[in-house]
Amino acid sequence: MNQAFKRIFLLVLGLIVSIHFLLISVYCLPINNKDSKLKMISYAYVYPLFHQNWCLFVPAPSAKNSIFVRYQTKTGYTDWQDILSNEIEIHKKNRVVGRESIYLLLSNSLIYEFMALSGVNSRTYTEMPKNKNFAVLHFEISQYLKSNFDIKAGTPCEYLLVSSNTKSTDAYYFKSLLVN
What we know:
Elements: H1 3-28, H2 37-50, E1 64-73, E2 76-77, E3 81-82, H3 83-93, H4 100-116, E4 123-125, H5 132-149, E5 156-164, E6 169-178
Parallel strand pairs: 4-6
Antiparallel strand pairs: 1-2, 1-3, 1-5, 5-6
Helix pairs in contact: 1-2, 3-4, 4-5
């Protein structure tokens, strides 16, 4: 190999490594100025490729949770749609799009609702539960329906929340709900 080529190669490699560590450092530093161009560039570079969540330290739960939703149209109710699994697939296919927040809002709200329902066997609810966990979940699902399916507030809808693990499956059916 040519000596000049080796030097240029090492110089370019050093520059790339330096930029990489600069962007990682800027991403990790608690800079208060959110409008900083360098912070935005580092976020665009680091988040889809190198971002670590808490699953690095704690294993993901073994339960498979699902949120099935259907809503009323002029011709009747739609088919059941598993919106949580849909969001997981969208997130796995393209992490750059930035739909992780929707997935996290839905899954975390669902986990808190299942914790509130612990000890309650599978059942049907004809009225909206009065607990805060369900209010948050209902709000998130309503926002999801309005933004993804162009549903109007006040549209009748139904939810089926399912949690399956190795020991049991629990299902909770909520009917007579209205989109917020």
